[in-house]
Amino acid sequence: MYVGIFLALSMLLVYSVYNEARSTNFPIIRCDEKTFDYNTQMCCNGQVYYKKRGSQCCGYKLYDDYLMKCCKKTNGYWVIRKNDTCDGHLPKTTHYTEELPQAIP
């Protein structure tokens, strides 16, 4: 009888610890003043975005690495089409082939 009670209490304890660990969103990481879940989100210089396949940071912007590329010069970062070269482009001549995701408020 005591063995049965002990086993039941042990199983209850293991189950409650498992549920508590499962309910937390690990890993939670800081992104400037915000927190974000590294498994589903990414941080680009203080802005939090939802992850997608091919997502990369370019300064404060998120871009699709399959279609676009990031250019970095002394005057900043900008995104251009993958087959273009960074030379000859100015930061204000940014080209987008698709709607980029907005930062999470």
Give an overview in words.
This protein has 105 residues and is of the alpha+beta class. The chain has one domain. It is 21% helix and 34% strand. The chain contains one helix and eight strands; from the N terminus they run αββββββββ. The chain has one helix at residues 2-23; strands spanning 28-31, 34-37, 41-44, 47-50, 55-58, 61-64, 68-73, 76-81. It has a two-stranded antiparallel ribbon with strand order 1-2. The chain is elongated. Keywords: Signal. Pfam families: Galaxin_repeat. InterPro entries: Galaxin_dom (IPR056601).
Which properties best describe this structure?
105 residues; alpha+beta; two-stranded antiparallel ribbon; two-stranded antiparallel sheet; 1 helix; 8 strands; elongated; signal; Galaxin-like repeats domain-containing protein
Concise account of the structure shown:
Residues 31-83 form the Galaxin-like repeats domain. The protein is α+β, with helices and mostly antiparallel strands.
Strand and helix map with partners:
Elements: H1 2-23, E1 28-31, E2 34-37, E3 41-44, E4 47-50, E5 55-58, E6 61-64, E7 68-73, E8 76-81
Antiparallel strand pairs: 1-2, 3-4, 5-6, 7-8
In one word, what is the shape?
elongated
Uncertain ranges: 12-23, 92-100
Helix content: 10-25%
Q: Indicate the structural class.
A: alpha+beta
Oligomer: single chain
Number of helices: 1
